[in-house]
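Schema walk-through. Below, the input block comes first and the output block second. Nothing else is stored per chain. Lengths vary across the set, and this one has 275 residues.
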Amino acid sequence: MNHSVGTAKQLVKKSLIRRLRRAELPSDTIELARFLIGKVVVHELPAGRVSGRIVETEAYPPGDPAGHHFRGPTPRIRSMYLEPGHAYVFFNYGAHFMLNVSGEPAGTAGGILIRAAEPLEGLELMKKHRDCSNLLGLTRGPGRLAAAFQVNRSHDGVDLCGESALWLGAITGEDTKSDAQKVIGETVRIGITRAADHVLRFYEVGNPFVSGPKRLLGTGALASTRKIAASAATKVIVKSRASSKRHSTATQAGAFAEATAGKNMGTKASPRKSE
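--- output ---
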């Protein structure tokens, strides 16, 4: 798959970006992480609109030892407990903001990290925000993406399915691919030490805006490519977890283990890199 600025401009010109409705979102972190591949993040800024097509996500479901929510609710992570489609923004290692999307029914915490996007609109604004002229360097990586889109802590808790300036969308029009045409790769997540062997990172195969080490993007032991339909492993998520508003650490850990059953690839985590 070859991508260029011209392709991105043509896509926007012949298509429309509509706001996603919450009813369209899966109320499940892992399923939502897959669903968001190919969707669009949009920020309406005073200077103009910036938008990008999401090409890489990571899921942090309930009970995930790598998630901020593993030890229970705190004021800092309250947005993770909102219904699916709300922004959870945190400052990573005092260097970069990170944009996440809540992924579980209200009262249960889960999040999806938006790791990378393919720029669509507002390229010049993004270059200015990033002080970068390299197209591939604008939004490839969660820290870069947040900077290019001017996302900061003030956006924490924003309803991305509402009428806010920061929102999630879907592309409609003659140039869009159907869900059946999109191929998604799955690998372990990047830069974590806990639950590092679980396959909860999703990306569009062949897209040059995907971040991370190239060794994770192969089609052998390190990644499996599938159609966008939810995998069998996704469907074995414990049903009981959605019926409870609060889980003990032990219960969440059990739910996480079952939800990710069969996803252990035995690979090692890479050092965390925001950019």
